[in-house]
Amino acid sequence: MMGRLFPWVLGAMIVLFLAMPQLFAPLLRPFASNPDQVIYDRASLMALTSAHLLLVAMGIVPAALLAIVMAAFVSRPGGADFLPLSRVIVNIGQTVPPVAVLALTVPMLGFGTWPTVCALFLYGLLPIFENALAGFSTLPQSVVTSARAMGMTSAQIFWRVELPLAAPLVLDGLRLALVIALSTATIGSTVAARSLGEVIIAGLTVNNQAYLLQGGVLTAALALVLHAALQGLTNRMRRKTGRPLA
Amino acid sequence: MIEIKGLSKIYNGERVVDHADMQLETGTITVIVGTSGSGKSTLLRMINRLIDADEGTVLIDGQDTRDMGLDALRRRIGYVIQDHGLFPHWTVARNVATVPKLLGWSAPDIKARVREMLETFQLDPDRYGPRFPHELSGGQAQRVGVARALAARPDMLLMDEPFGALDPVIRAQAQDELRTVQKQFGATVLMVTHDMAEALSLGDKIAVMNAGKIVQIGPPEEIVTRPANPFVRSLIAATDRPFRRLALIGLEDHIVSGTAQGPAIAPDASLADALSQMIWSGRDALPVVDAQTAPDAPAHKIITLRDVLRLGQAQ
Ligand SMILES: Nc1ncnc2c1ncn2[C@@H]1O[C@H](COP(=O)(O)OP(=O)(O)OP(=O)(O)O)[C@@H](O)[C@H]1O
Ligand SMILES: [Mg+2]
Fold first, then answer.
1. Beta bridge partners of B214
2. Which of B52, B87, B94, B134 to mutate to probe the A interface, most A CBs <10 Å?
3. DSSP code of A235?
4. What pLDDT is attached to residue A246?
5. Per the CB < 8 Å rule, is A242 touching B71?
6. What is the pLDDT of residues A126-154, one digit of tens each?
7. To the nearest whole angstrom, how far is the Cα of A85 from the nearest Cα of chain B?
8. What is the 3-state secondary structure (H, E, C) of A126-187?
């Protein structure tokens, strides 16, 4: 019961904090270096959080699309030849650390949002791809054959049978990628992307622990809530089809 | 009519189906029997082109299946896959509705048809319709698989061991239903089974396959009385296994209390004796009476057909 309630409580706390940060000032005051600088106020926390989430979405949505399409393609008979190539692509994305991606892309893309989006995109490919691949390549063969035998077109089979059956695993990958991206997005602020990293960096530069806590805890809380929400969704799907919960 | 001419499939240089020839008259049931791996499923799947034949042709009413649209061809041929293949993320009702939906039937028509099909196969639509396949027993799932294949009133039906997981009683019922439904809309059925008894009771014609070849095809009487070779003979011989098994079991351990009419059987008789008496006199239970009891005393110890069928089942 506590486990079920926890994400909702945490979600409500986040909303409350973003709407009325001053309410939490007494909690943070002991950590502040300067009693006038308890709640970060160079930008609204609400706006920063939105920008942070937008940044994550801009990186992960295209990564998910590409990774899922690649996984769906290489897991069918005609696409198997492209599996090694796809693996190379997603592994490169994973082995180059996001900081290095920032360093490499800033000269080309300039400061701001785009280098970070690029880093998040590359970093998200691998977990989504590998999980989606597992999902698409372990579909029960008799079910897919039945779908063909009943005269579904390839598109109908994909949308009505293959994708729904692979969905729990696809979402597992997406969940991993999102959680990683939520924390990784903070480093975007080193190259002037708007994110909650800005609060953390401000905390570091003026040596204000209260700022550090706000930025850090807020980011972590967002990750936890998103994780729990997606986990709940996939568990519901799994329960419906009678497959074991992860 | 479905004509299969010189159909072959080659996997890794091996002919798993080897020049199969067969004619399926419209409105008849043809049953393929054969050992595991003899190519039965492969032959079946070449008819609705789930597998492309390497040689030979399939004609439906004179038209080559390769000249027909793939999806249209498959929507008019019902197919029951060996392990039911129900969509695990759809309810039983939605599964049965699959092909009618693809064909664009109206919602009320689909709903009525789903109810009708579930009822036909002894599944209460209100109880089982909303369930998911994982909430069914193996036998129930198989019946749903058959109901799904028949839902759009296909004029041809390919069934790959559709009743394998059913107990003898339900299996006999399902066979009856299949025959009724098949007669109703005159479907041409090609069915695969491992069970010679099922083949003999359902088939207008039986085709025996061995190592990719059709070694004999003909009406059941011909298969039984004139097996073409020792292989077919051995398949026939295997059919009376349950009788041999029943002959080894004495009935005294399986007496239950109840009443039954007619001549009694002695407690030292075998289950095979009991079964043959039941068949001969058309009863589903026999009184069991030993020598000491007066022959006209009311009988309270009986042996039932249901128990005999259960005990004769393969374990
Ligand atoms: N895709 C495939 N690739 C290679 N060999 C195959 C393939 N499909 C089937 N086979 C082989 O073809 C032979 C016939 O298979 P098939 O499934 O038609 O047998 P079956 O008669 O239906 O057997 P069962 O009664 O066990 O279902 C088998 O030896 C099998 O191993
Ligand atoms: Mg088979």
1. B209
2. B87
3. H
4. 47
5. no
6. 999 999 999 999 999 999 999 999 999 99
7. 28
8. HHHHHHHHHHHHCCCHHHHHHHHHCCCCHHHHHHHHHHHHHHHHHHHHHHHHHHHHHHHHHH
Residues A242 and B135 sit within 8 Å (Cβ to Cβ):
yes
Same domain, B234 and B277: no
Tell me if B214 sits within 8 A of B208, measured CB to CB: yes
Q: Output the CA–CA distances (angstroms, integers) from residue B128 to A237, B93, B94, B131, B166, in the order listed.
A: 20, 8, 11, 5, 17
> Among B238, B256, B291, which residue terminates a domain?
B238
Whether B277 and chain A come into contact, CB under 8 Å, resolves to no
Nearest by CB to A151, from B74, B83, B134: name it: B74
Q: Which residue's C-alpha comes closest to atom 28 of ligand 1?
A: B37
Give B202→chain A minimum CA distance, Å: 24
Which range among A1-5, A79-83, B39-43, B79-83 has the greatest average pLDDT?
B39-43
**Residues across chain B:** 315
B305: confidence class by pLDDT, cuts 50, 70, 90: confident
Say whether pLDDT at B298 is over 70: no
Give B219's DSSP letter: -
3-class secondary structure per residue, B258-287: CCCCCCCECCCCEHHHHHHHHHHHCCCEEE
Q: Give me the domain span that covers residue B265.
A: 241-314
Count of domains forming chain B:
2
Low-confidence ranges of chain A (pLDDT < 50): 246
Domain A45-241, CATH among 1.10.3720.10, 1.10.560.10, 1.20.120.420, 3.90.1300.10: 1.10.3720.10
ipTM, interface predicted TM-score of the complex: 0.80
CA distance A94 to A138: 24
Q: What is the distance in angstroms between the Cα of A164 and the nearest Cα belonging to chain B?
A: 7
Spatial CA neighbour of A224 closest among A185, A195, A182, A187:
A182
Ligand 1, from B12, B38, B52, B192: best to mutate by most atoms within 8 Å of Cβ? B38
Distinct helix (H) and strand (E) counts, chain A: 11, 0
Give the largest Cα separation in chain B, rounded: 76
B269, B303 Cβ separation under 8 angstroms: no
The domain ranges of chain A are 45-241
Domain stops at, among B213, B238, B263: B238
Please name the amino acid found at residue B281. S
